[in-house]
Amino acid sequence: MDLRTSEESGGVVTAGKSDALEGGLGSKVKGVGSISNKDVFFRADKIDLKSLDVQLEKHLSRVWSRDREAQKPKEEWEIDLSKLDIRNVIAHGTYGTVYRGVYDGQDVAVKLLDWGEDGIATTAETAALRASFRQEVAVWYKLDHPNVTKFIGASMGTSNLKIPPKNPSSDGHSSLPSRACCVVVEYQPGGTLKQFLIRNRRKKLAFKIVIQLALDLSRGLSYLHSKKIVHRDVKTENMLLDASRNLKIADFGVARVEAQNPRDMTGETGTLGYMAPEVLDGKPYNRRCDVYSFGICLWEIYCCDMPYPNLSFAEVSSAVVRQNLRPEIPRCCPSSMANIMRKCWDESAEKRPDMDEVVGLLEAIDTSKGGGMIPEDQAHGCFCFSTPRGP
């Protein structure tokens, strides 16, 4: 049986090689006598046809995938994977894994999106996700604001991407399905806002820093909303800080262009403690769901604490919708700041201010008289009942 096939034509590797088909035939077949490179004969009962079929399918799939990629016109946001050097894992998210890396000499964060590649999603669902991703990436690529993480580019296929192995001691690289997607954004060395607040949980933040961070976040959201983009997952974990403590909105994993009809935007998308009542209740929503989430973040920035730390997800969801539960504002909080919180997390989405209005309210706050949260070592008893401070 002659198994020789031209390698250049995209077929099986020449069987005359001792390690034919990446060990498929070479490891399964016992040769007889001396074998020349010109003529090779195998015993049919010693050939593992199932292994041969698998190897052939993988090889042809790679060839066809390369052919399709070569035929498709490149989008303006598509990156050159040969310029991307992925280093180490820095985070695991709902939609994939985030790595630190270098792209064309620039420090970057690389998010590998592997939804639809776990065998659970149907072909149609995966195709819909990829189509939506392609549309939204085209929007992200055009965003340009100092408080929005700079989007560098993306790739719709990762077949040529070298992923560091999960086990550092192992050799080589891990691989992803060729249909997985890759997003590259600028790297922020300051970590997440959540981590920064946790580090300052005991001593709290100076009021000027509270206002600076709040303004950065509000300006970034106002910009997104002006582009008709609803983030849908505004929380301190999704905000990054650069080396100068400037805040950058990140993680557009569930962001989408705002629908003309609010009823087209439904479903529980986001993180429970930050989700607006209408989102938790499965009702139609719009960009005002981000305003609600901003109000919770504002409380968190001021208090350097977590909202609802002693409640389960189910308790939070029920209480926010049915009992109008909100974080308790400490008495030391200046009324100007407290009023913004209350306006933003109003039960009625229509009564919440737009983010550009919030920017104006924050800019009007006088920070010269202090007004920051009282550190734990200076407070007597519960901070919520400490002596009022600030204007």
Automatic annotation (TrEMBL):
InterPro entries: Kinase-like_dom_sf (IPR011009), Prot_kinase_dom (IPR000719), Ser-Thr/Tyr_kinase_cat_dom (IPR001245), Ser/Thr_kinase_AS (IPR008271), Ser/Thr_Kinases-Pseudokinases (IPR051681)
Subcellular location: Cytoplasm, Cytosol
Record keywords, A-Z: ATP-binding, Cytoplasm, Kinase, Nucleotide-binding, Phosphoprotein, Serine/threonine-protein kinase, Transferase, Tyrosine-protein kinase
BP GO annotations: cellular response to carbon dioxide; regulation of stomatal opening; response to blue light; response to red light; temperature homeostasis
Principal place of residence: cytoplasm
Pfam families: PK_Tyr_Ser-Thr (PF07714)
GO molecular function, one term: ATP binding
UniProt keyword Acetylation, yes or no: no
UniProt cross-references to SUPFAM superfamilies, sorted A to Z: Protein kinase-like (PK-like)
Name of the top EC class for this enzyme: transferase
EC number: 2.7.11.1
Domain Protein kinase positions: 84-365
Reaction catalysis annotation: L-threonyl-[protein] + ATP = O-phospho-L-threonyl-[protein] + ADP + H(+); L-seryl-[protein] + ATP = O-phospho-L-seryl-[protein] + ADP + H(+)
A GO-annotated cellular component: plasma membrane
This protein's name: non-specific serine/threonine protein kinase
Species: Tetracentron sinense
Lineage, uppermost ranks: Eukaryota, Viridiplantae, Streptophyta, Embryophyta, Tracheophyta
